[in-house]
Amino acid sequence: MKNRRSSPHDSREHGYELSYKLAREQLAKSSDIQEQCRKSGAEYVEPNEIVINYLNQPYYITLPDVEISLQDSKVKVPLKDKILILHYFTEAKGTPATGKLITYKQLPGGVSYFPAFSRRAIAPLVNHFGKNPELLIKAAAKLGERGADYGDVSVNVNAFDHVPITLVLWRGDEEIAFNGNILFDANISDYLSTEDITVLSETIIWKLVREISSA
User: Fold this and answer.
1) pLDDT tens for residues 150-185?
2) For residue 126, what are the CA distances in angstroms to 35, 58, 146, 191?
3) What residue spans in the chain does CATH classification 3.30.310 cover?
4) Could you count the other beta carbons within 10 Å of the beta carbon of residue 154?
């Protein structure tokens, strides 16, 4: 009997499981949980819980087993979200916001990874909201987010306490196709890796898409 070849989905899930395992181990080794709470904006609830805001919802990190749950919910937290939460918490440097926005290409390694980022995050943003940019404002409002002053339509999404992300759309016409971009505070690499920023941006876009789909 031939062995079943693993699918790309299986490989991806295995990669997520490994990343989550490593992230849990990193947090378990942390020598100063309260300091990381200060740097990340999380709340330390003694003796064994951390409360961290992620996409406008409070999540609990329970210690020492490092389990993650959504407050007052029995819904299972997706593995990708768990990894992002742990990476943000353990990597946070507490750097203040600069107020200067940068593009993905200005991130470390961003030029090389931009084609994948554009396919995974910018393209869905433009494809689902470009023809009707006002839908972006409506979808973001359901998440408690607010409008911004860039492009023709834009919104600020507070992914984490120190990670604001700005989604921008430009209306097209008969000669120019509608377009979009995703912008970050210049300090974002002090909180997340470039790959994590890709995953986070993709997660935000599809969450907004689901909001308009369920309306």
Assistant:
1) 888 999 999 999 999 999 999 876 666 789 999 999
2) 39, 29, 19, 26
3) 101-213
4) 21
Question: What pTM did the predictor assign?
Answer: 0.90
Other Cβ atoms within 10 Å of 95 Cβ, number: 15
- Class of CATH domain 101-213: alpha beta
Exposure of 28 by Cβ count < 10 A (0-12 exposed, 13-18 middle, 19+ buried)? exposed
DSSP codes joined into one string, 69-137: EETT--SPPPHHHHHHHHHHHHH---PPP-S-EE-GGGSTTHHHHHHHHIIIIIHHHHHHHTT-THHHH
- Interhelix angle 33-40/79-91, rounded to 10 degrees, is 100
d(CA 44, CA 209): 33
